Amino acid sequence: MVNKLTPMSAAEYTLTIVLQLSAKLERMESANNKIMRTTFKMFNRDCGDGSEMPFIEVPFSDGSTPSEHNLPLLTNAKSIKNLNLSHLREYYAEYTGHCATTDELAMKKAIVLEIGVFPSKLRLE
Q: Is 3 left (phi over 0), alpha (psi -120 to 50) or beta?
């Protein structure tokens, strides 16, 4: 005896498959984002202060990029030092998940770590 799917059960089955595939795709996108962030951070770690070899744009934890947020690119130490307060706060919030502080130097150091660079290499003071 062959089980026949009713139109409703076929639709429910299809929805279940679509939801399962969607969940798998979300996990893959999350894993890919982590791999990209790690790879770009490793690259940036070898760029010194970015003056000879510019830093690569590191995605935020949600996968979006600073350029998608219309933020200036952080290509070297000077670009980080020259961030205005609004951009500094947005970078800090997006990279760390925390509200901005009043300590600009602390925010810059946190951002630098999030893009894979050691603050001591940049002389941010």
A: beta
Looking at residue 97, its amino acid is G
Q: For the chain, list the strands marked E by DSSP.
A: none
Question: From the centroid of its chain, how far is CA 70?
Answer: 14
pLDDT, tens only, 38-87: 999 999 999 999 999 999 999 998 989 999 999 999 999 999 999 999 99
Sign of torsion, CA 68 71 76 80? negative
User: What pTM was computed for the model?
Assistant: 0.77
The C-alpha atoms of residue 100 and residue 95 are separated, in whole angstroms, by 11
CB 80 within 8 A of CB 124: yes
Exposure of 15 in the CB half-sphere (CA atoms within 13 A):
6
Burial (CB < 10 A; 0-12, 13-18, 19+), residue 24, is exposed
Rounded Cα distance between 93 and 111, Å, is: 9
